[in-house]
Design a protein that fits this description.
Layout lengths: L12 E5 L6 E4 L21 H7 L5 E5 L6 H8 L5 E6 H17 L8 E3 L8 H11 L5 E6 L1 H13 L5 E4 L12 E5 L2 E5 L6 E5 H4 L4 H26 L7 H8 L2 H4 L3 H5 L3 H21 L8 H11 L11 H20 L8 H7 L3 H11 L6 H11 L3 H25 L3 H11 L12 H13 L6 H8 L2 H8 L11
Parallel strand pairs: 1-3, 3-10, 4-5, 4-6, 6-7, 7-10
Antiparallel strand pairs: 1-2, 8-9
Helix pairs in contact: 1-11, 2-3, 4-5, 7-11, 7-13, 7-17, 8-11, 12-13, 12-19, 13-18, 13-21, 14-17, 15-16
Amino acid sequence: MKPKPAAPRAAKTSHMSNMSNQSEKTFPAADADAGAPARDLFGIPRVALGEALAAASETKALVVGRGCIGQAASLFGAQFPGGRAVIVADKNTMRAAGGALRSALAAGGIPQLEPFIFTDPNLYAEYKYVEQLTASLKTHDAIPVVAGSGAINDLVKRSAHECARPYFCAATAASMDGYTAFGASITYRNAKQTLECPAPRAVLADIDVIKDAPPEMTASGYADLLAKVTAGADWILADALGEERIDTKAWAIVQGGLRDALARPAEARNGDAAAIHALTEGLMLGGFAMQRTRSSRPASGAEHQFSHLWDMEHHTHNGAAPSHGFKVGVATLAVTALYEQLLGMDAAGIDIDAACARWPDARTIEARTAAMFASSDFKETALRETLAKHITTDALRAQLERLKIAWPDLRVKLRRQLFPAGETRRRLREVGAPVEPEQIGITRARLRESFTKAFHIRRRFTVLDLAVRTGWLAPALEGIFGKASPLDGAT
């Protein structure tokens, strides 16, 4: 059966809980949470959740609060008038929220098809699962209502897009920032890719459901949010060196309230409702910023390149792939350590003539990259991304000259943006996330190699590009993996 056209878009609305089971407040999107802390470390006003929703291009309604799963029918009816629903879940998320969601929709008179349940116990965000769901969705016109978190949300997001259909998301864990993000992170053709697809039209996040998620899922989400600290530093670098200007609205959406959202790692680990609420909001904000820019730049930097590299290498530990947040958390600590090494460098001492003399031409860098990834199944991806960002000797000279001028002020900004490595490590430990690469099955030797390989798999300018272009990477790695390694908590 050919799917019917998508239901007409409804007006954008948002609801936020005041942490009471009974009291919800509704507000115009741009006027929400006026009492929130006003500014970030750089004096940019904080953007509240409602205002961020107004800036989003695809999500039209958001409900966050305790016990709000009961509002599923009214939210669905407002955004998909006259539509039918089909819940999509796996066995775990069907138990956690799918049943209650189905009951709430039925109580509100929303017609439903039988739920689509993924049964593979090793379900992950791989394109074959998109194909399975898409085949089912194309037999009817119902709106997918996903009950789940990372992998399931990404699978539904892409499948709905392939069926030219909007979808509804009911979050089940504060485990990642992809709920409200544009694009889906899917393994496709042996490479982890962000496939184009819109964010959900409506999102519901019941804190009572989310706080009861397994603690390791909360830890994963916290680590993913903590990565916005280093991602922000990378954007500061890219802006200062003329690579990619900061979108101040997107910056404020992610960074404005980031410290508040990260303030209580131990409480989040223990399922404290207020800490989970703050974490959930922080993750939603990251997605809205990505919607605004139609890019993951506001929330993803070098630390995510490490995680994507390990995904592309099909890394597993104890028979399973570590969670996205756990990989990103370990990488965030590694990238923070790299920043600490580079911030101790003297840009005034860079010998620009020598740097330009040793800079490889495109043919040389292509040969080196091909050799580095010869045995991988993503060599073509590495070649494409590396060549896309390779600059000429003249461009390198101009950028290094710019760095010399900007470095004193830039160092101050980066130090203000970053947490020290010891603080990053403490926060990860308190929330229950890994702090040693061995905890996710990555040896020190492989982690060290990953600094170089991660540089090659994405064209985005990050601290890795700064380290390579300045010639600082080799001495920085000596410092990171030396006797007083920040990875061991020695600094």
